[in-house]
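Quick check before the chapter quiz. The format below is the same one you will see on the exam, so make sure you can read both the input and the output lines.
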Amino acid sequence: MAHSHAAILSPFDVARAASRNIRLTVVVSVVLICGSFAAAAALQMRNDRTHALVQADYFEARRAGDVAAAAETNLDRIAALGRAFAGGKEVREAAHLSGIRNITVFDRNRAPIARLWSDAVALPPGASATTTPAISARSIMTVPLPSKIVAIDFDPRALVPARMLERAALTTADGTVLIQDENWNGSGAFVPVGAWPVGVRTSVDEDSALRAWTGSLRSISSSSWAPLLSAPVSR
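Here is the expected output.
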């Protein structure tokens, strides 16, 4: 009989036990909900960060296209001056303004037959066998003609304005760097310069891209909290 009385709980005890269970359930639910929100926020932030870097890559690719267009225009001009000199025209002033150091015309036996200035340009190996314009690692352009080969020594800095070369490099197809900005980190897709055997590579400024991303997060956070902080408190 004593045991049966001990096993019987009063309504107060039942209510207190139920209250404890409800509080525990509420606490666990709150923790789980907060954890879900935190996980969702972390995933969204990671996706936004990736999106910011993808956008930066896109804009760098477009900028590389602009740099390539400028380089192509100047390479075409240098080649045209070389052909004009091989044809007997006076090009000294235009060559100087275009960054040409010297021009030497060779016959098909690699013998020099004309030069713009005193020192002859060395003809790169294999140049006599090429049928299309080429550029060697020493910034020597070779332009094949029906009975001649034009070798042009040029300054690669004349190909792209310095302001456009930020975090960029102009390289040959095999990766040899002709000119580069000091802030270029060696990355970036190879964007061809027209039909020339060179290309432009630009690296993404990840620090600036992520700073802009975190700045936008702060701005969104401030605008979200501002109405709550400025709302009048009801008494």
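If your answer matched, good. Helices lie at 2-7, 11-86, 92-97, 206-230.
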